[in-house]
Amino acid sequence: MVFVPSVSAIMADFGADVVKIEPPGVGDMHRYGHQIPGMPVSDNPYVFQVDNRSKKSLSLDLKAPEGLEVFRKLISRADVFLTNYRTSASEKLGLTYDDLEAVNSRLIYARGTGHGERGPEAEKPGYDSVSFWSRSAMETHMLPERGAARLPPYGTGDHPSGLALLSAVMMALYQRERTGEGVDVSVSLLGSGAWVNSNMLMAALCGAEFQPRRSHVELLYAFRHYKTSDDRILKLGINDHERLWEAFCHAISRDDLINDTRFGSLTLRNENTIELNQIIDAVFLQRSIADWDQALGKFDIPFSPLPTYQEVAEDPQMIANDILVDVNDPQYGKFQMVNSPLEYGDYKKVQPTAAPRLGEHSREVLFDLGYSREEIDRLIENGSIQEYQSLGLPQ
Questions:
Q1: Interatomic CA distance for residues 304 and 289, integer angstroms
Q2: Percentage of residues in the chain having pLDDT higher than 90
Q3: Are residues 243 and 378 in the same domain?
Q4: What is the pTM of this model?
Q5: What angle do CA 261, 267, 272 make, to 5 degrees?
Q6: Distance from C-alpha of 259 to C-alpha of 265, rounded to nearest angstrom
């Protein structure tokens, strides 16, 4: 839904010609991700938009012999094939690397899996919420002292996993330039989650002794959340403890803390953390988030307010770095979407277009493959392909 499509969305940003293949009928489940109960309400399929911008949609029945023939013709011309099918499904449809390598020996075959290609759970279904977040212990780490944790935001494990798979594809393309031969690559949500949480997992692998979880009042001052006078929250992220201790005291106008014998070193600040946190909690409650933004910024203290989603959407720093990019949709008009995070010298990314409707480019793609109008009409009639106009959906 998100993981593998996000890879080709980034490739499309840099000019790749991407054909998204979906089954006739309802297509990719991700088209309806915005309708999941609890998601922000909109007619615009916003989650599908970001991962499928600038693509062509071919609605193709791979179980039909003529549909599979169309697919193989596409593969014969392709540089990269991306799939999230499990091995059993790929074998059943004739879509394994060996199947497609016989059609195009230069093909880069890239798979995104839930739990890897080997082992007893290789065929287990996987989504980022369980395979990435839960299995890596990140969710365990963030679980509140009482009650269940809130679910991670939609797709937040998929996108970093997609960047990992993109890296594998780029390395494979480089290898092909040197050898002339294609190769198969893969990334799992399970492995990506472990990599993201590798610092804490390494502690377990090295036999480290895990300390009891601290409550909020016991956390080291440098990494806590603080409430401000206007009922906002900010978070500190001070890693350079010794260098920035005095600067921090100046920033919060508590110079008296610099030489306070209770807090004179990181060890002492940790030992007396509850006392220190009580002092700092009270200080932050005296001023607004805007005041703290100026005061902490003046002394180069790493921190961030906890913004609303709307504030992020209007963030001048995001806009200055083209992290938000304009898109025009024929149905939903002009809106912005999140840009891919890669920059490449002075190369200008392609201006993104809206995500395609299901089967919107079926006829165009087949024309490019050399099919005649009559042949395409016949394939539509027998259900091997489906085009957008035949679905009875609004144009």
A1: 10
A2: 81
A3: no
A4: 0.90
A5: 60
A6: 10
